[in-house]
Design goal:
binds NADP nicotinamide-adenine-dinucleotide phosphate; FAD/NAD(P)-binding domain; five-stranded parallel beta sheet; 2 domains; alpha/beta; 15 helices; eight-stranded mixed beta sheet; about 525 residues
């Protein structure tokens, strides 16, 4: 689908581009790399920050690391033989993304400090009008890669705004604030908190951990990757590919306990043993046993979180917060604890993504209005009524058992297939048929039945306000990838504008084509 022949714009330069990408995390950079590899140069990436990296730029809290092995949590088309650990820490993952942006020549395409405020489909002009903090742009195709975990969720707790001490969210860590010797309250016990709690516990005077729901925690099988191993991967890339494949297949097996509650019991036993080994005190342990099936909420991995809760300066508070006062927190049992700082480990806005309020489709309605609180998309990527829009990590593309980078790559291949299909036919717009989208969503929901996510007995951020799990892909990830790789033309609708051109490819030289009027 080479576009190099007709790329009239300077490198992603002018106010109009063929493809606009929003966000420069794994999704945005991955899409840009694949566009370049296909010969498409006329694209621009809008990034509200001053550097690339998405969630791996924003989350700098102490102990921040990935809970998927790095050899898998990286692009298949940009392997890094030099990962220093099996589960790398944030600085190394961020460096990797910065390197990808540089090495693949993406930097000239990126418009930093460009926050996208609104994107509206212009039916007459057959393109997107994009309002950014630095001016207006147009683009034929719009790839939303703003990330599923980019908007911190601020809890609605009475009096929180009246607190006079320091408050910050884990995704906006204030490194200038010295926690040493402070009385600190942590709200939340999710994936972020289990990583930063053991890091700050030795520093602080008191740590009050406000736990609403205990998480299931498994051991973290992390290790340093030695010089020899790295050299092997550098010299024999096939060895690294084999390592990646082995990790992938092993992780795919983890879908089974999530799909079959009886198998979940086996994994629960492992987690219980981990808890017993880590927390000798039965009364503390009792507070830490989850009352729902493992996997219903994201399963966490940590070796140091549970032991850190046994330290004398830590208290696990399970009574719930009644209110926050200017210098303290009052729990529902009436106990008031004076604190200097409150750290919110309260997660992200996943099912009510703010971008949905700012993307308007053909009939002028926003995604958020169309979705009515329950996001839906064909293959989690395209939405009927929103021509030429592609959402990376859109509805039902998250995973509880494997690497989301794998899902992002699968979606990107779908985007490439759709762009290629539209451009080859000289279409000005492509969108999924409403029936195809509805059938896809219904099939996903059927597949969700009986899984830990619907029958596991918990409330989680996987569920939207209607109670539907519109976040996770409930099947093997290779099934998604296989389906996304091919575009079924019957499930898409093309639009044409008079005088448009289509590309007629030379069968013997696939990157060369001539243009014909449709
Ligand atoms: P999270 O998993 O959504 O956890 C949020 C925590 O805050 C939960 O314990 C939740 O309790 C609690 N909470 C929320 N609102 C509250 C309120 N009003 N009062 C009291 N407690 C409240 O968020 P996260 O830890 O930031 O992680 C989010 C996701 O990011 C993860 O699931 C994972 O996908 C990703 N992540 C990955 C890594 C990694 O790779 N290691 C690290 C960090 C994050 P309830 O459970 O009762 O709702």
């Amino acid at each position: 689908m080479s576009q190099s022949n007709d790329s009239s714009q300077p490198v992603g330069g002018a106010a109009g581009a063929r493809v606009a990408i929003i966000g420069s995390g794994f999704g945005g950079l991955g899409a840009a790399i694949r566009l370049k590899q296909q010969g498409v140069e006329d694209f621009v990436i809008f990034e509200r920050a001053t550097d690339v990296g998405g969630t791996w730029r924003d989350n700098t809290y102490p102990g921040c690391a990935c809970d998927v092995e790095s050899h898998l949590y990286s692009f298949s088309f940009a392997p890094n033989p030099d990962w220093s650990r099996s589960f790398s820490h944030q600085p190394e993952i961020w460096d990797y993304l910065k390197r990808c942006a540089r090495d693949f020549g993406l930097l000239p395409h990126i418009r930093f400090r460009h926050e996208v405020r609104e994107a509206a489909w212009d039916e007459a002009a057959q393109h997107w009008r994009i309002e950014t903090s630095q001016g207006s742009y147009t683009a034929s195709m719009l790839v939303m890669a703003s990330g599923a975990l980019s908007e911190p969720a601020m809890p609605q707790i009475p009096g929180l705004e009246s607190f006079r001490g320091k408050t910050f969210h884990s995704a906006r860590w204030d490194h200038d604030y010295d926690l040493k010797g402070r009385r600190v309250a942590v709200i939340g016990t999710g994936a972020s908190a289990v990583q930063f709690v053991p890091e700050i516990q030795p520093l602080v005077a008191r740590l009050h951990l406000f736990q609403r729901t205990p998480p299931w925690i498994l051991p973290r099988r992390d290790r340093a990757l030695g010089a020899r191993e790295r050299q092997l991967f550098r010299r024999f890339p096939a060895a690294q590919r084999a390592e990646r494949a082995a990790i992938y297949l092993f992780r795919e097996l983890f879908l089974l306990p999530f799909r079959h509650l009886r198998l979940a019991g086996l994994v629960e036993r492992m987690a219980r043993r981990h808890l017993e080994r880590s927390v000798p005190d039965p009364s503390l342990r009792a507070k830490l046993v989850p009352g729902y099936a493992i996997g219903c909420k994201r399963v966490l991995i940590s070796n140091d979180y549970l032991p850190s809760l046994t330290r004398s300066n830590v208290e696990v508070v399970t009574e719930g917060i009644a209110e926050v006062r200017p210098h303290s927190i009052l729990d529902r049992a009436g106990v008031e604890r004076p604190v200097d700082a409150i750290i919110l480990g309260t997660g992200f806005r996943v099912t009510d993504q703010p971008f949905a309020k700012h993307v308007r489709g053909r009939d002028g309605r926003t995604l958020s209005e169309v979705w009515g609180g329950s996001p839906q998309a064909y293959l989690g990527t395209t939405v009927a009524g929103f021509p030429n829009l592609f959402i990376l990590l859109g509805p039902n593309t998250g995973l509880g058992h494997n690497s989301v980078v794998f899902m992002i790559e699968a979606q990107i291949e779908h985007v490439m297939a759709a762009l290629g299909h539209a451009w080859r036919h000289g279409a000005s717009a492509i969108e999924p048929r409403a029936e195809a989208q509805a059938a896809f969503v219904a099939a996903v929901q059927r597949r969700m039945e009986g899984t830990v996510w619907t029958a596991g007995g918990c409330a989680s951020w996987y569920l939207d306000p209607t109670g539907r799990n519109s976040t996770l892909w409930p099947d093997f990830s290779w099934r998604f990838s296989r389906r996304a790789a091919r575009l079924n033309p019957d499930e898409y609708r093309l639009s044409f504008t008079p005088g448009a051109t289509r590309q007629v490819f030379n069968r013997h030289e696939p990157t060369r084509y001539r243009e014909e009027t449709v």
